[in-house]
Each structure stands twice: as structure tokens, then as C-alpha cells.
Amino acid sequence: MRRTTVFINVICWISYISGKAETAFYSEVGYITAEAFWQCFVMAHHSYYTGCLFRCAEEGREELYISKVENYIVAGIGFVIMSNGRLNGVAVAQKYLVFDDSWGSNRGYVWKRTIDLFGHLPLWKKLIGCGMGMFPSFFEVFHTDSMKQLGYYFVDAHNEGLQFLVTTGIVGLVSYFGIIITTLIKNLSFVKKGKQESELSVIVPAILFVWLIQGLVNSPNVFITPYLFLFLGIGQNIVAEKGKS
Q1: What is the pTM of this model?
Q2: Each residue of 4-31: b (16+ CB within 10 Å) or e?
Q3: How far is CA 81 from the centre of its chain?
Q4: Alpha carbon distance 186, 9 (integer Å)
């Protein structure tokens, strides 16, 4: 059990380092420091939460990790607020409760325009999309405007749903999230019924759930997407083995 937990955390660290290397390279020292502290906290929480899930699954208890995890999350929120002077009450309300172009590090800008552009596509393109890797061309009409307003242009939607909607269409979007959600639900049902036979029965739905959450503000990339399909394969194998038994 402990070896599995360490293995999962190593994968997460590699994914973080690979995915953030380019960003960190071009960032200021202060940004790198803040990212490092925040990621250390996230990984500590991940280790704690995963370990508690294993222990509760083995002992058949729920109260053990629910109350402690809630306290840990509250402590994490306090840590972030204390470590970043920019996050005061007014700033948070203005930044995150009001959805405008600047929302979420200018994600509001690309999200609103992506939805508008997709709405004007012909039906056949809405169904099959514009093609993988074609988001920059799809969003090219706003490159000049975004360069003037923001100083850069977008090469992806910064939202997994919108990214797949544009590039693979409605068919691709439903297929992609369909396999993730069905794998998550089927594996989660084993945990709820107390039929898990290994730690992976708990790890797989937890990782898939976190993947869906982070996908709300990120686009898939070559560094971490292979791990998604690795755990999807593990989850589907668990479902298949349960079906045989």
C-alpha cells in the first residue's frame, strides 16, 4: 500500500515538473517560489488524502478522513491567503465572483469568444470539430485583438471541455468525457459497496475526479495525458475483472 502511494505521488511530481517547466523558466523568481510552495502543499494534501482513503477502505470507516480532510483544506485555504498578499476579500470577489474577460488569468476572454465562435460554425463542424491541434487557427480571428489587450494570443481554450468541443466536435467531446465518467462511476460503485480488492479501486476514481476538476481551467497536454489513459486502462481492467467474478 505504501509503495503504491509513493508511486502515485512520484507520477504527480513528474507531471507537475514537466508541465510547468516552460512556464517556470520564463517566470520571475517570486512566481517560481509561490508555485513551489503551493505545489508542495498540494502534494502533501494528496499524500495525506490518498493514505486516508486506503486506511478507511481497509477499516470500513468514513469518519476518519472526512473530518481531517476538511480541516486540512481549511488550513490550505488559509495558507494560500496568508502567503499571497494580493488575495484579500475585495480582490477575490472582483476576480472570481464576477465573470468578465479578465476572470481566471484572462480565461474569461478566451472562453466567451470560443463559445461565440463555435456557435457560428456549420452543423457538420460542430459535430466533428475543426481537427486536433487546430485551435490556434480556429481562434486566429482574435489574435490581433488579444495581442493588443493582453500582449499574447491563445493557442488553446484553457478548458478541457471547450478544447475538445472545438477540435473534436460534439461527437469527440461526448466520447472523451463518456469514457472518463463511466469509468469513474463504475469504480466508485465498488468502493461504495465495499467490494474493492486493492488500493487501485480507490485511487482510480479519485484521480479521475481530480482530472475532471483540473480540466475546468486547463487544456490537455502531452506531459500528463498519457497518465490519464494509463489509469483509465487500470479502471477498465478492474471493471472487467469484477464482471468475470
Answers
A1: 0.64
A2: ebeebeeebeebbeeebeeeeeeeeeee
A3: 22
A4: 24
Find out whether 99 and 108 touch, Cβ atoms under 8 Å: yes
Dump pLDDT digits (tens) for 55-79: 665 565 544 444 555 555 655 655 5
**Pick from 213, 208, 139: nearest CA to 178:** 208
Q: How far apart are CA 71 and CA 64, in angstroms?
A: 12
Report CA torsion sign: 141, 146, 147, 148.
positive
Residue with cell 490537455: 220
What percentage of the chain reaches a pLDDT higher than 90? 41
Torsion sign, CA atoms 3, 37, 217, 136: negative
C-alpha–C-alpha distance, residues 87 and 77, integer Å: 11
Range 16-21, long-range pairs (CB < 8 A, 24+ positions): 16/43, 18/223, 18/224, 19/221, 19/223, 19/224
184, amino acid identity: L
Q: Where residue 1 falls among pLDDT bands split at 50, 70, 90?
A: very low
Is residue 240 classed exposed, middle or buried when 0-12, 13-18 and 19+ CB atoms within 10 A define those classes? exposed
Q: Compute the distance between CA of residue 139 and CA of residue 109 in angstroms, rounded to an integer.
A: 12
Place of cell 463511466: 182
Instruction: Check the CA dihedral 209-223-219-46 and report its sign.
Output: positive
Query: Mapping DSSP to helix (H, G, I), strand (E, B) and coil, where does residue 210 land?
Result: helix
Helix (H) or strand (E) holding 18: helix 2-25
Q: Report the C-alpha gap between 236 and 245 in whole angstroms.
A: 14
pLDDT tens figures, 204-214: 888 999 999 99
